[in-house]
Amino acid sequence: MRNIFAAQFKEYRKKLDISQEEIAERLNVTSQAVSKWECERSYPDVEMLVNIASLFQISLDELILGKADSCVSNIPNDNKLRLVLCRGTEVIDSKETDVTMRIMLDTEFENMEVLGNANIYGEVKGNISADGSVNCDSVRGNVSAGTSVNCDEVLGNVTAGAGVNCDGVDGDVNAGTNIVCDDIGGNVNCGLTIQCDNISGSVTCGMTITCDTIDGDILECNGDIHVKTLNGKVNKCEKTVYLKDDK
């Protein structure tokens, strides 16, 4: 434990960019005492350990055991805006950033949560959810966004508070506004308009549907329906069903 403390103390002193003399003054001890701590020749008492952890703005566990007790416990509280990428409680990467930053993912995970907009360069190898929008390449899992979703292929389901614009979605799609996709493998629920090539499941739409093929039923549509091939049936339509081949 003493050697871990010595290493942690020295590392965080250097992060603060202060000398042994300066940190000794802040802790109200002698510089010789600080030197002995770093050389593993002595060990602070409990009260001093608390003061040191407070000065470094880290937990006692991290100071004496080298373990972080949360995802951000080993990041200094220096009023800088950072993007933090974690696996569980382990910080994989952190960068100073502005409000919007694109990040490159090269790791697999089960679930990814973003407080804000998720602008990701590369494949998402799990599920992803964001308070704001999700903008990325392909996604192996499900996508959930408070606003819009703009991705390539999604192997799971997509849920968005606003619009969805994807090449293909293997699962279901639920969108608050418009959906623009090539192929959708599941059911579709849309607040406004749908523009797709093929939909394998059933469809509920707040306004107009424009598709090549719908294999399932159109459960409800409050606008016009423009389809080339409808293999299911129309249960409820407020306006007119047009076949694209009709004259």
> Which whole number gives the mean pLDDT?
83
General form: rod-shaped
SS elements, strand count? 20
Order of helices and strands: HHHHHEEEEEEEEEEEEEEEEEEEE
Low-confidence stretches: none
Give a verbal description of the structure.
With 247 residues, the chain is α/β, with parallel strands linked by helices. It folds into two domains: 2-65, Orthogonal Bundle (434 Repressor (Amino-terminal Domain)); 90-243, no CATH class. Helix content is 19%, strand content 36%. The chain contains five helices and 20 strands. The protein has helices at 2-15, 20-27, 31-38, 46-56, 60-65; strands at residues 82-87, 90-96, 102-104, 111-114, 118-121, 127-130, 134-135, 143-145, 149-154, 158-160, 164-169, 173-175, 179-184, 188-190, 194-199, 203-205, 209-214, 218-221, 225-230, 241-243. The strands form three sheets. It has a ten-stranded parallel sheet, with no helix packed on it. An eight-stranded parallel sheet has the order 4-6-8-10-12-14-16-18, with no helix packed on it. A two-stranded antiparallel ribbon has the order 1-2. β1 and β2 form a beta hairpin. α2 crosses α3. The protein is rod-shaped. The relative contact order is 0.06.
